[in-house]
Amino acid sequence: MDDVSVEDTGNVPAVDRAIAVLEYLTKQKSATIKDISNELSIPPASAGRIIKTLLAHDFLIEKQGKMSAKYSLGLRMLYFSQIVYQQLDIVNIAHEYMETLSESTNQASQLAIIDKNSVMYIEMVLPLAPVSIVAPLRTPLPLNLSAGGKVLLAGMDTKSQLNILESTPLIHATEKSIIDKESFILHLHKVKEEGYAIDDEEYACGIGCLAAPIYNYLGKVVAAVGITGPIALYKQTDSFESLLDAVFLASKSISKELGFSFL
Length: 263
Fold this sequence. Notes:
Elements lengths: L12 H16 L4 H8 L3 H13 L3 E5 L4 E5 L1 H13 L2 H16 L2 E8 L2 E8 L21 H8 L3 H10 L13 H14 L2 E4 L6 E9 L5 E10 L1 H4 L1 H21 L6
Antiparallel strand pairs: 1-2, 3-4, 3-7, 5-6, 6-7
Helix pairs in contact: 1-3, 2-3, 5-10, 6-8
């Protein structure tokens, strides 16, 4: 009776338990019915019925162990995850948070991705007060000249990062542009450690930028969100910390919408 009754909350216990089993197997990779029963405090008979149902719908697969069968997530889970992820439009998700970011900082907010070894802004929200220089939308830009580009490079694995840097020249735009590859790699280590990047007049004199990474449900950096405005604001400790807090809030909010969990 416990598997078909409805609690006061309106939840169906059997469904709650099935979800608990799926969540448990995302962490344990595989488990026996006994493991599942003990860890989730589900009666063995109920755990068996749940497993049988999930198997019938290809949400689980069965593997024979030495003592008893073990169960792990099936390909149908991957199918559903791909459908959900395809329906997530990062531009639409990010736009609301970018509007808030631009309004709270009075800066231009930008959403960046890497495209063919360049950084590209795919969305932008401009503030009421005009910004004298803003990189154009959907135009390839050198990776070393933007906070967003640095964040995206820093979020890569070492091999991918080096492959890009070996095949892509570092562009000199101002006296502050970092064009030495060894120095730039050290700079990227700092970006990864601190969780954000700054463009200190490296793209254009008088202009500063801040950016932070956006993660997907796999924990992969898929984009960067940042702001651009007069460099003076980035030189003042109080205003810089306020800008950084706002950028972090936007990046975390968008990442959560994409399924990333901050521990």
